Amino acid sequence: MRFFATALPGLGPVLRDELRALPDASSVGRPAGDGRADVVVFDHPAAPGSLDVRTAEDVFVEVSAAPRTGDPHTQAAALLDGPRLERALSAFATLARPLLPRMSYRVAVRVSDEGDFRRTDLRKAVHRAVAEMRPRWRQGDPAHIELWVLQLDAEVFRLGLRLTGAERSRRTTRTKERPGALRPSVAAAMVRLAGPPPQDPTLLDPCCGSGTILIEAEAAGWEPAGSDIEGDAVDMARANAPDVPVSRADATRLPHPDGSLAAIVSNLPFGTRFEVPRGWTAAFAAEAARTVRTGGPVVLLAPASSGLRAALGHVPIALERSFDITLLGARTTLWVLRRT
Asked: What is the CB neighbour count within 10 angstroms for residue 179?
């Protein structure tokens, strides 16, 4: 069965890496863009519980793919093939929820350009085609079934049934929310980039916020610990990750012995919500170099303007790779570093 998954722009390579590691996954394609997300197409046998892809924003079972036609009605007809829709609905019933005689549905359309037709025209055309094929279905929002049309690299349209619900953006394990909290898929990508847990798998998030990285690190087999300088963040992280030790501490004066940590993974404070003192990034980099053992990963989320690159020039931490991503409408960078 063919599926596709979406990731935040810039995280397609990490999503592809996770999909390639799924048991029985095959034909994992290269990331393509629809203008608002990276999209990776892959084949999988579609066993229940086998598609928990943590770095994905959403996962879809594909109905069909069709080349660009230039007309919304022709495009909708090319995508809504009866037998393929039946096959996708069967997979949806296995992986998401049982089908009912009367289902509610909604259609979402993303196009990379509107040179041939408007996005709203294609959405209306798909609505009409669905109504003809499933006269007992009714439009709704929220709905039992979501049909998404994505235009990839301008020339290909894909239609899929969304398998993941809106709750995926917060994961049900995060019971308390904080403004600007890190998206779980980004936290999962950061933990994945830290590599597999070593024999002594202590991972620290020294700016843990609501604890999203701690949740993902624990799910990946690390032994996470968190700290934050703000008391409300500590309380929230403890509530969201009750089995993880969380303390109040300054990230530039960590209460950990030299070389005691296997890894640091953290979303550094930036933006208008935080007042970062001058020299903070350099002081944090020095603490990371002191506390992480030689060879250990340091994975950080921080914009280029944070001064992190300059700070790395004064500590024994080397840059291995970086990803420019779009998060909350702003460009930032995911840094994959290693203690040398």
From this structure: 6
